[in-house]
Structures are given as C-alpha cells and as structure tokens.
Design goal:
The complex is a heterodimer of chains A (137) and B (496). Chain A has 137 residues and is an all-alpha fold. Chain A has five helices and no strands. Chain A has two domains: 105 residues, Orthogonal Bundle (Helix Hairpins); 29 residues. In chain B, strands 1-2 form a two-stranded antiparallel sheet. The chains are: A mainly alpha (137), B mainly alpha (496).
C-alpha cells in the first residue's frame, strides 16, 4: 500500500502543483498573482504528460535494429512542446494586459479596480441626470 | 486544378484566413487591409459552400494532413455535422467583416487597425480549425488560437472604455483554465488508450467502460469545453467580454465563438464517447439538463434587469446557449436536430441584434444604454426595422427563423414525453419578450432628443443581409432542418 502510494510520487507532485495553481487563480485578488497561479497550473499538466511518457529503464526512442530495448514514448513530450508554446503565449498576453490595466487604473488589485468601475458607473448616472435636467429646462 | 482544389478543401477552409492574417498585418493602409480581409473571408465562405456541396455527394471526408495517414497523423474530418458550424462561422464572419468597414476605424486608432484585422482572421481560422479537426490535441491548439486572438480583440475595446481590459483579462484567465482542464482530460484519455485521433478513441474506449481514468478524463474534457461554450455557471466571462469589445468584434464573437464550442460539446458527448452510454446518459440527465434549464432562466432574468444593451444581449446569449444544450441533453434524434437548428438560427439572430445595437452606438457615439435609446427608432428607421425583425425572431414569432427552432425544440420535448420542459421553454421565451419589448418601446414610443441621423449603407447593408436570412429561413427552413436532421442522424445513428 505504502510503496504503491510512494511509487507514484510524481503524480502526487503533479496533483499538489495543480491544486496550488488553481487555488492561486481562484483565491488571489492580485492580477499578477493569478497569472503566476495559471502558469503553475499549466506546468503541472506538462509534468503529468511527461510522466505518462516515461517508462522505468526506458531508452530514448532511437531506431536501432541491433538492440531490442524498451523505449519511452516520445509523443507526450512533443505534445507538451506545443503546450509550452501555447502557455508562453497565454502568459505573455496576460502580462501585457496586466501592464495596460496598471497604466489605466493605477492598480492591479481586483477590489480597487471594481471599486473604480463602480465609481465611474455612478458618475455616469449622475452626469446623465444633470444633463437630462438641463435638457428639460 | 479544380481537382486539387476540391481534394484540399478541408484544409483550405482553415488555411485561407490563417495565411492572410500574416499578410494583413504588413499592410499599413486601412482600406486595403479591409479589402484583403473581406476577400479572405469571402474565399473562406466560398470554400465552405463548395465543401457543403462535396458533403452532399460524399457524406464523410477524411483529410490526412501532410499525407500522414490517420490515426498516426492529424486527421481533418468533415461530415454532415461539422458542415453546420463551418457554414455558420464562415458566413457570419464574412458579414461581420463587411460591417467592420466603418466600425473598426471608428473605435480603434489608425496604426493598430491592420493588427486588428490580422487578429480577426486568426480568430476565424482558430474557430474553423476547431470544428474541422479530428485530433483531440490539435483541437486544443485551435481552441487556444481562437481564444487568444479573441482576448486580444476584446482588449482593443480599451480605447473606448477601459473596462475592456478587465473583461479581456477575465476572459483570458477563465478561458486558459478551461483549455488546460481540457488538456488534462485529453492526457488521461491518451494515457489509457494511446491515441489522440477521435475516431480511434471511440473504438478503443468501448472496451473500458468502467475505467476510473476514462470517467475522470471525460469529466475534465466536458468541463473545459463547457467553459468555452459558456454554459450557465461557467458563463461569467461572457457578458463583460461581449459588452466591452469593439462593436464589430462583439458581432463576430457573439455569433460564432460559442457555436464552435457547442459543436465540440456535441461531438464529445455523442460521437467520441458513444460507446459508454451509461456515462453519457448520466451526464446529460444530471449535469447538462439542470444547468441548461437554470441557464435559460438566469440569462433571461439577468437580461430583464440589465440597463446596458450590449450586456443585455450577452445575457440573452447565455439563455439561448441554454436552449441549445437543453436540446442536446434530451438526447433524442429530433432534439439534437433542434439543437443544431437553433445553433444556426441563433447565430443569425444574435449577429443581427448586435449589428443593429452597435450601429445605433456608432451614431450616438456613447455606450448604448436603455436611457439613451429613446427616440432612436424614428431617427434610424432602417436599423430599427431590422432590429425589430431580429427581436421577433429571438422571441420566436411565426415567419421568422426563431420560430422554426422553437417549434422543433418543443416538438422534440413533447415527443420524448417531457411536457414540463416544453412548458419551461415557453415560459422562458415569454420572459424574453419582456426585455425585447423594453428596448422597442423606448426606441419607438418615447420622445427623445431630436437627433438627425443619416443612415449609412456601408453599415446597414450587412444588417439587411442578416435580417433577410432571418426571415428567409423562417419562411423556408427546409435547408436548415434537413441538414440538422442529417447531422443528428450521423451523430447518434439509429440507436435511439
């Protein structure tokens, strides 16, 4: 029981990383920390794929007719190469958005930003009221 | 020459916008970059029409990408099911590109316009790739291409309203989590079956009915796609993203983006996992059915209380997505066909409504809220007329496309002995009249400020086209109905 639990320790690491990442994405109010969480979450999935592909004692998958050996599956690695590129693009886009948000709002805290949006919304209503009043007179 | 063209149609549909997007970014001139974009979307639409004709002859096209034979290589599958979203996406994107001619230069600064068109084409290419590919991992790549491009497009709305940035950020984070969940699901399935090809997956899954990894993988995939399709509790990103995006982008996204994901949902449920019936039936009954019913009502009620019109339409989209997934959840042939009919009609209805509302916004030059709509109906009769027709279509009045989809949906629920669902659908449609009437009343009945608006044909031509189709498919729906029934038959066969 214990050996089988510890034997799949890399799955445990994947699991822990996944939960840490997801918690950061959901629980943090800071936009930058959310992106950190997202990156950790995605990296845990990369580890998951690579773990599938590995066989204990497996060699690299090189075609060699003289040696009849067990080899690791290369496909998950290749898939993850693609997923890493996608992950980099996501992070880059997210970070550039955070920069823009910081420039426009002067903060990257979710609470500050939604408070500002709310103020804008009420300002909008007030100005509209005064304009309407003027219009009627 | 023609032979090569017809043989490569499945990839041409995706490649045409993808390659043009690389060239558009190099053109500094606004007009020429628009021309190139229009040409590209028109060609894509032409290719998809040709593909439709080809499908009528062959009924199943399998295209091996780069001549690597499936299941090893990536396969593109076009059949009677996939052709529906392909026609929707390519057709609506062509109309939206015509609409973009005036709208994009109005809202976006000159130097980034060609980049916007490039992203625009990239988003279309991603959506088309999503529906053509038959490879589970390739699907993830297209999912991310389309969603990253749409996030950047939504963020372009920041030049008018800075809230677009937050909307885009939320869209990005929620979308990325959804896509990653989908990848986990694909990984688990690959771990137990050793294949990524969807048809191959179907065959290999049949031996392992009660495998825990299979169930987990299925769950992850479905949740990931549900985030992208904006099914009820996972729809949080949608209203904001649609509301603050630039006008033309709202039209494109509202009419096409969720449709592609809904099609993927249908394909995973009824095609990839067709052999694990128990799992699918439980998912349909205990997850998708209740969520769709809640979505129908939550979306409608949110729309009734909403003041901002673009957001109102987005909430109404959530409700309409509820109808489509409800149709899938009932799971009979007739109901799945009804789902596809409504998918097609909703793309036209929502496209039309968004075009009408954003062109109102173009003339009053501020956010369109319920208060500053007053009197606009008289100032802009053509736009208002089309808006009313599309609204009637959304509410499901006879002689419009919306009526056809409601009719088949209710017929399907009654034939599967679920009268209470039919009643719920009717109640929800009746509620949708509330928010539609609210807008029409303000626009027509209430006296507003006197504004003189000269309606511009470059703006209303696309609205007229889309409204014409709304009415046409209400009068003669045989094309859509037959196509949808063929699709449903292809998806679930003669099982039920």
């Amino acid at each position: 029981m214990i050996s089988s639990t510890i034997g799949i320790w890399n799955y445990w690491i994947v699991f822990c990383l996944m939960m840490i990442g997801l918690f950061l994405v959901i629980g943090r109010k800071n936009f930058l920390k959310k992106i950190v969480g997202l990156t950790i979450f995605q990296t845990s999935v990369f580890l998951l794929y690579i773990t599938f592909g590995k066989i204990k004692g497996g060699t690299p998958p090189i075609l060699n007719e003289s040696i009849d050996s067990i080899y690791s599956n290369p496909l998950p690695h290749v898939l993850i190469l693609t997923a890493i590129v996608v992950g980099v693009a996501t992070t880059a886009l997210g970070l550039s958005l955070v920069l823009k948000i910081n420039k426009e709002y002067g903060s990257i805290e979710e609470d500050d930003i939604s408070a500002q949006d709310l103020v804008d919304y009420h300002d909008d209503i007030e100005t509209r009221k005064s304009v309407d009043l003027k219009f009627k007179q | 020459m023609i032979d090569i063209l017809t043989k490569n149609l499945p990839i041409l549909v995706v490649l045409c916008p993808l390659i043009t997007s690389l060239f558009v970014v190099l053109i500094p001139n606004i007009f020429f970059s628009w021309i190139l974009t229009t040409l590209s979307t028109f060609l894509t639409f032409l290719f998809s029409i040709l593909l439709y004709q080809e499908i009528q002859i062959q009924s199943h096209i399998s295209y091996a990408l780069g001549k690597w034979m499936p299941p090893i290589g990536i396969e593109y599958i076009i059949d009677k099911v996939a052709i529906i979203p392909i026609i929707i996406i390519s057709g609506i994107s062509f109309i939206a590109t015509i609409f973009a001619y005036k709208m994009i230069p109005d809202e976006i600064e000159k130097k980034s316009i060609s980049k916007v068109y490039s992203l625009w084409l990239l988003a279309i290419a991603g959506l088309l790739g999503l529906v053509t590919t038959g490879d589970a991992f390739n699907l993830f790549v297209f999912l991310e291409i389309s969603s990253l491009a749409s996030v950047a497009l939504v963020a372009m709305g920041a030049q008018k309203d800075k809230q677009a940035l937050v909307a885009a950020y939320n869209y990005l984070i929620i979308g990325a989590v959804g896509a990653t969940l989908y990848v986990i699901g694909v990984g688990l399935l690959y771990g137990i079956t050793g294949t990524l090809n969807m048809e191959d997956l179907t065959n290999r899954i049949s031996d392992l009915n009660n495998n825990k990894a299979l169930i987990a993988g299925f769950g992850f995939m479905i949740i990931g796609i549900m985030v992208k399709a904006a099914l009820f509790p996972l729809h949080i990103w949608l209203p904001r993203a649609y509301a603050y995006a630039p006008s033309a982008v709202s039209v494109l996204l509202a009419a096409t983006a969720t449709k592609a994901s809904l099609y993927i949902l249908a394909r995973i449920l009824f095609s990839v996992f067709e052999n694990s019936e128990n799992l699918i039936n439980n998912t349909l009954l205990y997850v998708i059915l209740p969520l769709s019913i809640i979505a129908m009502f939550a979306g409608t009620i949110m729309a009734i209380y909403e003041k901002d019109i673009k957001r109102l339409l987005a909430h109404s989209s959530v409700a309409q997505i509820g109808y489509i997934t409800l149709a899938f959840a009932i799971g009979t042939k007739a109901s799945i066909a009804a789902g596809f009919i409504h998918m097609f009609n909703h793309a036209m209805i929502k496209g039309g409504l968004f075009i009408a509302i954003t062109s109102l916004g173009f003339f009053i030059q501020k956010r369109v809220t319920i208060n500053n709509l007053s009197g606009l109906g008289r100032a802009m009769p053509i736009t208002f007329f089309c808006f009313v027709l599309c609204s009637l279509s959304l509410a499901g009045l006879p002689l419009t496309a919306g009526f056809i989809s409601k009719l088949y949906l209710i017929k399907a629920t009654i034939s599967s002995d679920a009268i209470w669902i039919a009643i719920l659908i009717l109640i929800s449609s009746a509620l949708s009249v509330v928010y539609l009437w609210k807008m029409i009343e303000v626009m027509w009945m209430r006296e507003g400020r006197k504004i003189v608006v000269k309606e511009n044909p470059t703006i209303y031509i696309s609205l007229i086209i889309i409204t014409f189709f709304n009415v046409y498919f209400g009068l003669d729906a045989s094309l859509v109905v037959n196509g949808s029934f063929e699709a449903a038959e292809k998806l679930i066969g003669d099982l039920k």
